[in-house]
Design brief:
Number of helices: 8
Radius of gyration: 25 Å
Mean pLDDT: 85
Structural class: alpha+beta
Number of strands: 10
Distance between the termini: 86 Å
Order of helices and strands: HHHHHEEEEEEHEEEHEH
Low-confidence stretches: none
């Protein structure tokens, strides 16, 4: 009986060792995958998501099958409900807007991409982070999205997804009386956008002027492909989120709409 018990104990020990070794291998694989995921760019992650994508809408199914290939037709006739549609048809660049403020002595003051807020509960303070992402392809396509989550990376992913869903195309041109080049380096006429108390007026400018506007709005206009512009701002311009939304609302008034509905 003692020999049988010894043999059973040895078998159990070997089985436990094998289970532990398998767990260690799985943890190493997971750790390696996480490291590879962190090294990947947004474009590589978007391609992987498109490959794994199982569409849920009719437009998504048509895009996945290759029957719909024109993003302009989709923007004109349909509403985009899946961000993979945009990823599969347009190569977009993204940038974070500095909407937050770092903490520190005397209130910090240095701008950062994460805006931190917190809710008071019985258990204590529950922090949350929000961020804004702008996407564009430098050819007249632009989208702005904001996301909020308990951690920074999920908030960024959510904002990027919403920015792609809010994508639209607007018309560029050369509307300045000082310039007769007829090249799409600026906007065709003066437009105005408003959000909250922030108001932005975009004015066409001649070639070589550059982007005469705040730094965060410069990020938006660079991703649209606009090279020269004048601007005026009114209201609480330090509220970066509203200022960026006002800029995008001004560009939306130049949105290209086809005759077909």
């Amino acid at each position: 009986m003692k020999e049988k018990e010894k043999i059973q104990d040895e078998i159990q020990e070997k089985a436990e060792k094998l289970v532990e070794e398998e767990k260690e291998k799985e943890l190493k694989k997971v750790g390696g995958e996480r490291r590879r995921y962190k090294r990947k760019t947004d474009e590589e992650r978007a391609q992987e998501e498109v490959e794994r994508w199982i569409p849920k809408t009719n437009v998504g199914r048509l895009v996945k099958k290759g029957k719909l290939k024109d993003i302009d037709e989709i923007l004109r006739k349909h509403r985009i409900l899946e961000h993979e549609i945009v990823d599969s048809l347009v190569n977009l660049k993204s940038d974070l807007l500095l909407i937050g403020q770092s903490k520190g002595k005397f209130g910090g003051g240095k701008r950062r991409a994460w805006k931190q807020t917190q809710k008071k509960t019985k258990e204590g303070n529950v922090p949350s982070f929000s961020t804004s992402v702008v996407v564009g392809n430098e050819k007249g396509y632009i989208g702005l999205g904001t996301g909020k989550a308990k951690e920074t990376l999920p908030a960024r992913a959510k904002a990027l997804r919403y920015a792609k869903l809010n994508l639209f195309k607007f018309k560029k041109g050369c509307g300045s009386f000082d310039c007769l080049c007829n090249e799409p380096h600026s906007i065709p006429y003066k437009v105005e956008g408003k959000c909250g108390s922030s108001k932005v007026v975009l004015i066409p400018a001649p070639q070589g002027t550059g982007l005469v506007i705040s730094n965060e709005c410069k990020k938006i206009l660079r991703l649209t492909g606009i090279k020269d512009i004048y601007s005026k701002t009114f209201g609480q311009t330090r509220t970066t989120v509203n200022l960026a939304k006002a800029c995008v609302n001004a560009l939306k008034k130049l949105e290209e709409k086809g005759e077909e509905k």
